[in-house]
Amino acid sequence: MDANKFVTDGNNITDLSSGNIQLLFHYATENFYTKKRVVISDLPYQTNRMNLRFPSIIQLYYVENIDNELEFYQEFFPNGDLKNFTKNNCIVTEDIARFFYQCARGLQYLHKNGYIHRDISPRNIFIDINRNASLGDLEYSTNNPDASSRIISKYSAPEIKEVPNTKKSDIYSIGATFGKYILKYLEDDDLKNEFLNIVSQTKAEEPDNRISADELVGQIEDLLKKNGMQSIIDEFECRIEPCQNNYTFCRLDDIKGIRDNQFIQEIVSKALD
């Protein structure tokens, strides 16, 4: 990996999702993190997100209030978002099956903890160095079922034009997102048709007729087992306990250990090797 792709005199990362995002190098642990500045308030809610610890949910390590904006210190995903990853890499059936399953598990975790993501799309799914997927961009998620604001994209459920986002609109969005990749990358066979059948259940016109996150995970698991991909399930299960007991990568115990805007190329290159 070329360090120069991510580091240019300490300026913003240009090939991750839009926004004021910087790559940070933690000298004490020799690990990378990202710092993202967002013009939103509600510090207590955002701080609570640090308690979300699950393999397919982006790990938030710290939140700081700076001039009425919030800065989020979180995981760094060297493979970027799903849109760019699929554009720049060779993609096989197992990749799409794994990404769909991992994101469904992440959504199931969010819903069980009372959260609505509200903005699932290829730009908000991130791929780590081991080709594992995580749901990200949770700054605009909510755990308030009465929240009236709406987030609209081409992956949004049709009802969002008139009513707030709900868990059922999340289900529509994850189906719309992965339906696109299933159609593009899977061969025309029974597996593809069965995946598309699951997607169709996420995109029912009436929200109440859409499957739940629990049902989505169950159906994908059945399909993986049926088609010799049990290892995708097993590998994910092995990552859950370590993630819940510790931070996903390494603990960010010393926030002062992050030296913003001091990107020494030799150190960066060493850490990227």
UniProtKB/TrEMBL annotation:
Gene3D superfamilies documented for this protein: Transferase(Phosphotransferase) domain 1 (1.10.510.10)
Pfam families to which the protein is assigned, alphabetical: Pkinase
PROSITE patterns membership: PROTEIN_KINASE_DOM, PROTEIN_KINASE_TYR
Keywords: Kinase, Transferase
A GO molecular-function descriptor: protein kinase activity
Keyword Transferase attached: yes
Domain Protein kinase, first and last residues per copy: 1-273
Coiled-coil annotated residue ranges, if any: none
Listed PANTHER family: MITOGEN-ACTIVATED KINASE KINASE KINASE
Record protein name field: TKL family protein kinase
Protein source organism: Trichomonas vaginalis (strain ATCC PRA-98 / G3)
Organism classification: Eukaryota, Metamonada, Parabasalia, Trichomonadida, Trichomonadidae
